[in-house]
Amino acid sequence: MTLEQLRIFLAVAERQHVTRAAEALNLTQSAVSAAISALEARHGVRFFDRIGRRIVLTDTGAAFMTEARAVLDRAETAEMVLEDLAREPRGRLRVHSSQTVASYWLPPRLVALREMHPGIELRLTVSNTTQVADAVQEGGADLGLVEGAVSHGDLHRQVVARDRLVLIMAATHPWAGRETVPVAELTTQSWILREPGSGTRSEFEVWLTEQGLSVAALPVALELPSNEAVLSAVASSRCLAALSQRAVARPEASGWIITQPLTGAERPFALLTNPRRYRTRAVQALIDILTDEGFVTGLP
């Protein structure tokens, strides 16, 4: 039994006329008769009595009308629900983000998504750039946000914001009074770095290369897995570090660390998507917010 057969049965039963039902359904008379005959034959019943050139509902046909109409009503309701779901984004949305983006740029945009589309269930995972790219590549994330370069050539990468790395040191560091530090002197101090695979680390390595240096030339005291850990270690030592200017805004304002510019150390925040995977309305809703240049927050 199909929904189409039920629609044909009801059209005939309501009109008690095959030709008029066929005209209403925009079908041929033979197609309507065949559908009714197939339904009757399959279930061993008779819906209509043929009396001369007229048809009349049998008791079976009359009883079945109620059930057929109920089934079609439910089908129409389900169709309306699907149309509503299609208009309003909802469902699960898995976002993976590197730490700096997740901590300092992404939160107000996720709040905006929630306010605009409360039917979306959001799951945010924070990891380093390499892990984010892997998750998008393998299907564990619907989209990713990173601040470092990625080597996954088949992922689509779209720049959504800009950031800058700065040199940081404790307020008690001997260089704290300087306005700038010559690049050549960077190798004379101990360093605390983010872990390999983080966007901050990879962008700092790129900047060092552009200056004719490398991480191997720096006396590295520690490698730590979060911006907060790096900040805490720098504040209690004479080590240097390089972090996002977004990550150090509040510690700098409180006076317990000093920042100095790293000329040319700019980097993008990028959106990663997998072009081979279906883009749901929930994914598109977040992409629209992330790529909205007019989005305004109280954060940098």
UniProtKB/TrEMBL annotation:
Superkingdom classification of source: Bacteria
Domain HTH lysR-type: 1-58
SUPFAM superfamilies the record matches: Periplasmic binding protein-like II, Winged helix' DNA-binding domain
UniProt-listed InterPro entries: LysR_HTH_N (IPR000847), LysR_subst-bd (IPR005119), WH-like_DNA-bd_sf (IPR036388), WH_DNA-bd_sf (IPR036390)
Stretch forming the signal peptide: none
Gene Ontology MF terms: DNA-binding transcription factor activity; transcription cis-regulatory region binding
Keyword entries, A-Z: DNA-binding, Transcription, Transcription regulation
Family, per entry: Belongs to the LysR transcriptional regulatory family.
Protein name listed in UniProt: LysR family transcriptional regulator
Organism whose genome encodes this protein: Paracoccus kondratievae
High-level lineage: Bacteria, Pseudomonadati, Pseudomonadota, Alphaproteobacteria, Rhodobacterales
